[in-house]
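User: Okay, second chain of the day. Same drill as before: sequence in, structure tokens out.
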Amino acid sequence: MPKTDTREKIWLFISDRKTVRAKDIYDAFGLSPQIIHRHLKKLLEEKTIIKKGRPPKVFYSRAKRTKDVTLPSSFDPDGILNENWITIQPDGTRIDGEYAFYFWCLDRGFDYKKKFQEYKNILKKYDAFRKEGLIDATGKFTSTFSDTTLKNIFYLDFFSYEVFGRTKWGQLVLHAKLSEDRHLMQEVFSWAKPKIEFVIQKYDIDEIGFIPHSLRRKNPFLPELKKFLRLSLPEVPLQKVLGDVVVAQKTLKKSSERIENARETIILPTGFHSSKKRLLLVDDAVGSGATLHETAKKCKHAGFHEIYGLALVGSIKGFEVIAEV
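Assistant: Same drill. Structure tokens below.
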């Protein structure tokens, strides 16, 4: 609950009216915008209110449960949850860190301390696959596709974990892609850029290719990533050929269908040939891996000697099997 009398009155004002603008509070209290924003900032830090929208359309409302639930004292002194956990609610509200994890547990009837220990164990388990900040999925691909031409395939993060669902970056990549929200894209791209640059430098990449999207969008995710990266590398002109009905990979359940979709719809221009040696193919999210696999085969025929793959997030399926080998 807010500590000062004025701040408590502002909180009650917001709670009573459900959704208000800062101007509504100025008018009601007769205080300067600077003072009001100082109290609003503190209320946001205390997580007793939430903010939606962006200037000039910003609205404040009471955070759920703040009146009838006492938040526990910090149970994550190492900041693991602040770094790794977010919850995006159905109305689009984003909550980060301990607070979000605590209410996620509360909604499901979990003991938050026990669940936090489980979560740390999950992170430790899959961190075993990380090296130099990258997840090596090469073993998964070679066990799935006997004829893969990818020399190495890397994920920047997993898409989801068992029990706990989508990872922080799994959620942000998904929502940035579907909403075409430039602020979310900026956050994702800023996280991904140094990792992509590291791969380019480490493996002496000569050329880059971005997997084309199936669905047409105003602000398509991977072309926006390409603009953000501002790389000097030449780009492979991959194209997506659409049929009478646009079929997105995620709608196909069978691996054979996904392979056929990628093989028949992703093409290089007739006669294209590259004299470059090492190519990096970039995708936003990898499920079965069929798209990267088939695209790499086409690029191999076009003259590349070594082909590397990179996905911002990828499926965890198959990694437990690899861990046992």
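Residues 321-325 have pLDDT under 50 and may be disordered.

User: Thanks, on to the next one.
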